[in-house]
Amino acid sequence: MINVDDKPLTKRTAIAEGYVRMSPETLDAIVGGNIKKGDVLCVSKISGISGAKQTPALIPMCHPVPLGNVEVDAVPEGMDRIRVTAKVIATWKTGVEMEALTAVSVACLNIYDMCKYMDRGMKIEDVRLLYKAGGKSGEFVAK
To answer: Pick from 75, 98, 93, 78: which is nearest to 16 by CA?
Structure first.
C-alpha cells in the first residue's frame, strides 16, 4: 500500500458508470417486475452500496476509507440496456474512485446474476470513472 499517513483529510468525490446490455425481452421483464429473484433495480442498488463498502476486501492495495455517502442508481436506457451509476463521497486521505468503480461493477454483476436464467448473453460494458474531485491531483472529468 502507499503511505497516506501524512496526507491531509480532504473531501473526496467520485462518480462512475457502467452498462448491462441484454435482450429487449429481459429488459421488459425487469421493468415489468417479472424476474423470479425479485426487484432487479432495487437489489442492484443495494448490492452496489455493499460493494463500495467491501472495496478494500476485494482490491488488496486499496485503503479502507470511511465512506460518508454512497448513491447507486440503475436505470433502463433504450430497449436493451441498463445504465448503472455510483457516486461516492468521503472526507479522507485518499480518493474514492475504486469504491465508485466497485459499486458499479458489483451492481452490474447483480443484474447479471438475477437475470442469467433468461439471458446468458448479457454483457457488462464500459465501466469507467466519470468524475473525481479532491486531494492532491484535483479534479478529473471524463471526456
So the answer is: 98
**Catalytic residue IDs:** 113
Between CA 109 and CA 110, with CA 142 as vertex, the angle to 5 degrees is 5
The enclosing H or E element of 50 equals helix 40-53
Rounded Cα distance between 32 and 101, Å, is 28
Residue pair 45/72 in contact by the 8 Å Cβ criterion: yes
Handedness of CA 98, 103, 106, 111 (dihedral sign): negative
CA distance 61 to 116: 31
DSSP of 10-22: EEEEEEEEEEEE-
pLDDT tens column, 98-132: 999 999 999 999 999 999 999 999 999 999 999 99
Task: Specify the 3-state DSSP secondary structure of 7.
Answer: coil
Q: Model-level pTM?
A: 0.96
Report the distance separating Cα 137 and Cα 23, nearest Å.
40
- CB of 119 within 8 A of CB of 22? yes
